[in-house]
Amino acid sequence: MKVIDQELTSLKRSISEMWSLVHQQIYNAGEAMLTGDKELAYKVISRERRVNAFELKIDSDCEDLIALYAPVAIDLRFVLAMYKINTNLERLGDFAESIARFAGNLPDGEPVDPELVKETKVEDMLSGLLEMISLTQEAFDKEDSEIASRIFLIDNKIDELNHAATNIIARYIEQNPSRALIGLYMAGVIRKMERFGDHCTNIAEELIFYLDAKVLKHVGKVEE
Asked: What's the pLDDT band for 218 if we cut at 50, 70, 90?
């Protein structure tokens, strides 16, 4: 095996480990929010340092690969895609930390109002987001762009839930003025979930670029 192939394999392994860590962070943050588990929330917050360390290492590895080995064709696409995917994974880690901080600030032992969770379909959103990150990792591991393309349909559903939540939360605050702060926090969390979906679609686009040499960024967007 050539040295560059060894380095590419090492990079893929590091990205896969970061992917798994971020997935666990998202899952734990969602559980902490839904159950009011402060200990789990603090665990997510403390593990964010590991996500950041992964990002720095992977960035450095990508830069070294380009500088030292001048990869071409699919190898170059792989390194460029991993560089961008790394950034998106780090931002997903930030998202998990922000959800955990929200959970940590809830009153002791109290989850978010179950009725608000039900009406805004937050659990459905969390489930969709976890499916998105699982599918992107599966597409990465199997090098399958068809799997990656499934992400876009799930993201559309997340967008729909995000849009519907605005009026639901406004009505909740109007009916429960004493819990207005919780409603506002929840609105922020749901907005972050929508952005989470966008980062997953960014990852899917990078995978398709690497595997099929197709650039999907801005496809279908109308010029202003």
From this structure: low
